[in-house]
Amino acid sequence: MPELPEVEVVRVGLAEHILDRTITAVEVLHPRAVRRHHAGDGDFSAQLLGTTLADACRRGKYLWLPIADSLGGPPMVSLLAHLGMSGQLLVGTRRVADQVHLRVRLRFADDTDLRFVDQRTFGGLSVEPLTPDSTSGHLSPAVPEPIAHIARDPLDPSFDVDEFATRLRRRRTGIKRALLDQGLVSGIGNIYADEALWRARLHYARPTETLNRPTIARVLDAVAAVMREALAQGGTSFDRLYVNVTGQNGYFDRSLDVYGREDRPCHRCGAPIARQPFMNRSSYFCPRCQPLPRRARY
DNA sequence: CAGCGTACCTGTAAGC
DNA sequence: TGCTTACAGGTACGCT
Predict the structure, then answer these.
(1) From the alpha carbon of A236, which nucleotide's C1' atom is closest?
(2) Residues 229-248 of A with CB under 7 A from strand C
(3) Domain region containing A231
(4) How many domains in chain A?
(5) CA distances for A236 relative to A64, A216, A239, A258, angstroms
(6) Which residues sit close to strand B, CB under 7 Å?
(7) Which nucleotides of B are covered by protein (CB under 7 A)?
(8) Which of residues A97, A118, A147 is at a domain's end?
């Protein structure tokens, strides 16, 4: 469930299903799933056992669940999750059979459980200290230490457009590479980058230093709009790897304008959508609506 | 040090 | 049919 809308669908599901329940067992079935927890899987389990998860938070593609403080103060640590390319967080019960790629399970006192299922094991869980937020904005809730460098995402009310524009124009790269840089703006992945650039009519290799303020605002508006629309449809699911906490898939794949539509007609002008290799993957775009700039940065 | 290429995994689908 | 290759929603690390 990789990009922001899909992760937000999961966050909402976690908030509805697993908060304020005592964790009675922690099972790490694949050590790679907790490789970011440097103290090891024994410590990972020990830090969670007997606690409750107080909230479900997200920035970009990262999720975290603050652990209720035993003395009643504000949480000091949190369970941090990243879904990588194929991770799922599923709410189940004792009677649900183990998934093939089940990596970690937290059991709760009421017979429900939270399962981290991940085919490719690029995702993972860890327990991390919470630290005051260093990014811009008036509200400064705590964030897990390893994601302190992750920028705010376009759906964050404290996202600072001016700061983003300044930093973007200092870059010497193409617009798509910049949009995928989670330290500059978070939550955007390969699907929504291509969809937003199509909406903003910009080629993915357009040099960032050539973008003026109105154009940058247009790109950000396109990103936010496509993400809100995707969220309303439960996210994008090409296959059963991408589902919410109860195993339901999203429907935004039907609304995609360019991603995965090579050789099919552009929804605006009818020209065949092009696909080009990009960062070991693909970029999809309309060669007529999004012409190659005179100078290009890939 | 910013920017870019590659490695990390497993599975599916297409090509021969 | 079976083997090989290309590709997949992401990030981290090493090299230049």
Answers:
(1) C9
(2) 236-239, 241-242
(3) 161-285
(4) 2
(5) 22, 25, 9, 13
(6) A 32, 85, 100-101, 119-122, 170-174, 177, 279-280, 297-298
(7) 2-11
(8) A147
Cα–Cα distance, A12 to A8 (Å, whole number): 6
Q: What is the mean pLDDT of residues A242-269?
A: 96
Residue type, A3: E
Tell me the mean pLDDT in the region A75-102: 97
Predicted local confidence at residue A212, as pLDDT: 98
pLDDT digits over A206-250, tens only?
999 999 999 999 999 999 999 999 999 999 998 888 889 999 999
From the CA of A182, how many Å to the C1' of C7?
23
The answer to whether residue A281 is catalytic is: yes
Q: Does residue A118 sit in the same domain as residue A253?
A: no
Domain-embedded: residue A268: yes
Read off the CATH number of the domain in which A28 is found: 3.20.190.10
Q: Are A165 and A143 found together in one domain?
A: no
DSSP assignment letter at A156 = -
Active site residue A176: no
Active site residue A169: no
By DSSP bridging, strand A124-131 and strand A274-278 are: unpaired
pTM for this model (two decimals): 0.97
